[in-house]
Automatic annotation (TrEMBL), chains A, B:
One of its GO terms (cellular component) is cytosol. Pathway: Amino-acid biosynthesis; L-lysine biosynthesis via DAP pathway; (S)-tetrahydrodipicolinate from L-aspartate: step 1/4; Amino-acid biosynthesis; L-threonine biosynthesis; L-threonine from L-aspartate: step 1/5; Amino-acid biosynthesis; L-methionine biosynthesis via de novo pathway; L-homoserine from L-aspartate: step 1/3. Keywords: Amino-acid biosynthesis, ATP-binding, Kinase, Lysine biosynthesis, Nucleotide-binding, Transferase. Substrate binds at residues 47, 79. GO terms for biological process: homoserine biosynthetic process; lysine biosynthetic process via diaminopimelate; threonine biosynthetic process. Belongs to the aspartokinase family. ATP binds at residues 7-10, 178-179, 184, 189, 214-215. It is an enzyme of class 2 (transferase). Residues 273-357 form the ACT domain. Its EC number is 2.7.2.4. This is Aspartokinase.
Length: 419, 419
């Protein structure tokens, strides 16, 4: 009997009809002889409703209540309700089941209420329950902190709950049911030749998540990588009796047929700032980026190039588009101190990232990228690289053209008509 | 510094505006130097919404999940949300506060999920917290059962939570805030001369609750009586800075000026059944009432009188009106076995109860009642008595007339114009 973990997000448990549908997926795994833990999110919309109530109630005045603790007590109730309802539906369909709240397992967190990290999970009681044939329905997104209060893990935390439970009980796999049927080589909504990826490594999945692929929460992938939990992404909108194969996220060495490039991801949530004619002296760049870091603004894709003014340089970089106004205001206020002559900003940029573990051992990935874009007359503004990712910043009007051209150049196109 | 418990029901915390109003009542007690525990119900309508979800999810098939356990996990979330929100609002208004779930206190119950009884309350942690000046906001209606799961106390259970906490921490009083400003000599909606009662004994309050006065849950009064908790009923719709005095429910010996009769209560939820010409032999009455008891139908006001048929008797009694159809069907099916000749039933009856601890030491209460009703030409059909209550069954068309006449006869009328 294998232990497995299944996780269903908010749209998969949006109402009782959807919850009954989830029960069919669970029944299939239980009847196949597995010992099953199911992790559930709050019903779609419920977390937003509870967060809005907390917002209306107001923030605690400093020193009068620990930040986030009451928020956690209120918002965690959403998953509590879903876990009870799914357990009832399973019982109603003739299966043994019970709900588990985080504090009942217990799933222990740190004290960072509202965005807690998991500290420890006791696998004894829940492991014994599922081995005895009772389905465990766990309220995701929450645990109990050292203060004895409920702590939530932050948005998307149910993915992390599922992966952490899978690690704790030594599950054979952790199936994340969502509203897409897997991870794709690129967004299928913008390119119809995108292919579902059969297997992808943790590292690649992390890079894809970091550039905006919203299939899995980044922390859950980090956790899966650390504990070698085999995660599968599949769709709860597939027929419960025969879901698709989904995408398996696993160790690189478990992927027999390694692609050089696994995916291509456009990220539109970028803006570019250029500071012209900054004095080329030690400490100038540090001053700029310290100013932004102190304001909690993430800087990426830094390029320094010689300025026409001798002894000066132009510095350009990208930041999240949502922070642009704030960053521009900060930099303008510090113009004299920083010593630049002009500031330019640009929202119409897109970051195109090419991701693949094969890059580690294959040269030429970058040159294919540059040549492919050059052939289409697309100018590369900034570049950044990691061991398994190359990102370029281009004019946003070329986003789709670039994705399609690169998708073909790296041999990712699905044969039209093939599945 | 006195410890006090305050309890607010669903209409008092119906939305954030009402919750902010509750916070003003709490602030007043805290600023007066009291150590405060606040018990809250779910926001009005929330429990019904959660119960409906459970109903839609279905009942567990036998043996596949303990009855009521998942219902408790789901429905208890309503109070959890209110407790967090009120704590946030209090913190936001500059007061130290925190929410407490039943399992955090812990408030331990028995295993009767869905209608659990409180087994034990640990007063240490919550007592220390309030003595340290932190307001404790307790989610009412719930605790933790020996199985480690959440258990709810049944409808109205937040009153019981409040009284039990008051007993556990040795509170000076337990204030139950509701939508009426106290307990009245009779329903003020049917008699404008009804007076608010300043003090009433536990025994009288129990009798009033048993005949349908819905101010407090019966179990909370029993608990208050057992532990000598001084309970006060007052209105959350009064100005928070100057609430009215309400009604104090206390030991009989703490009531200096004892009234012979404290209240008069009409109960319309009654129906009468008469079985004519039942053979007057040992065991016949027992057979009738065993049949009804086995069907969980409560019988009250039994009268046996000689029948015109020699060796036979007529037996009449009352039952809750909601059970009438079921009772009639049962008795008809058993007509032969029971041996009666005819069955009559009547829904147009009302039970008028006169309640007062003074009856214990004063004769003549019954005779005043019978004379008063006879003077108005009202026929008494059945009678039942307890040590502090006399109830009569009359034709329901005389209900208001009887209440008003008795209210005057026992000297309960408010002087018109007086408060």
């Amino acid at each position: 009997m294998a232990r497995i973990v299944m996780k269903f997000g908010g749209t998969s448990v949006a109402d009782l009809e959807r919850i009954r549908n989830v029960a069919r997926f669970v029944r299939r795994e239980a009847e196949a002889g597995n010992a099953v833990i199911v992790v559930v999110s709050a019903m779609a919309g419920e977390t937003n409703r509870l967060v809005a109530l907390c917002k209306e109630a107001g923030e605690p005045a400093p020193g009068l209540g620990a930040h986030g603790v009451e928020y956690d007590a209120v918002v965690s109730s959403g998953e509590q309700v879903t876990s009870g309802l799914l357990a009832l539906v399973l019982q109603n369909q003739g299966l043994r089941a019970r709900s588990w709240q985080g504090w009942q397992i217990p799933l222990e967190t740190d004290l960072a209420h509202g965005k807690a990290r998991i500290a420890d999970i006791d696998p004894e009681a829940i492991g014994a329950a599922i081995d005895g044939g009772e389905i465990a329905v766990v309220a995701g997104f929450q645990g109990v902190a050292p203060d004895g209060r409920i702590a939530t893990l932050g948005r998307g935390g149910s993915d992390t709950t599922a992966v952490a439970l899978a690690a704790a009980v030594g599950a054979a796999r952790c199936d994340i049911y969502t509203d897409v049927d897997g991870v794709y080589t690129t967004d299928p909504r913008i390119h119809k030749l995108a292919r579902r990826i059969d297997r992808i490594s943790y590292e690649e999945m992390l890079e894809m998540a970091s550039v905006g692929a919203k299939v899995l929460q980044t922390r859950s992938v980090e956790l899966a990588m650390a504990y070698h939990v085999r995660v599968r992404v599949l769709s709860s909108f597939d027929p419960p009796e025969a879901p698709g194969p989904g995408t398996i996220i696993c160790d690189e060495e478990d992927i027999v047929e390694k692609k050089i490039v696994s995916g291509i991801t456009p990220s539109h949530d970028e803006a570019k700032i250029s500071l012209l004619a900054v004095p080329d002296e030690p400490g100038r760049a540090a001053a700029i980026f310290t100013l932004l870091a102190d304001a909690n603004i993430n800087v990426d894709m830094i390029v320094q190039s010689p300025s026409r003014a001798p002894g000066h340089a132009n510095i350009s970089f990208t930041i999240p588009e949502a922070d642009l106004d704030r960053a521009v205001a900060l930099l303008r206020d510090a113009k004299e101190a920083l010593g630049y002559s002009a500031l330019q900003s640009d929202r119409s940029v897109v970051k195109i990232s090419v991701i693949g573990v094969g890059m580690k051992s294959h040269a030429g990935v970058a040159s294919v990228m540059f040549k492919t874009l050059a052939d289409r007359g697309i100018n590369i503004q900034n570049i950044s690289t990691s061991e398994i990712k190359i990102s370029v910043l281009i004019d946003s009007q070329y986003a789709e053209l670039a994705v399609r051209a690169l998708h073909q150049a790296y041999g990712l196109d699905r044969t039209p008509g093939a599945p």
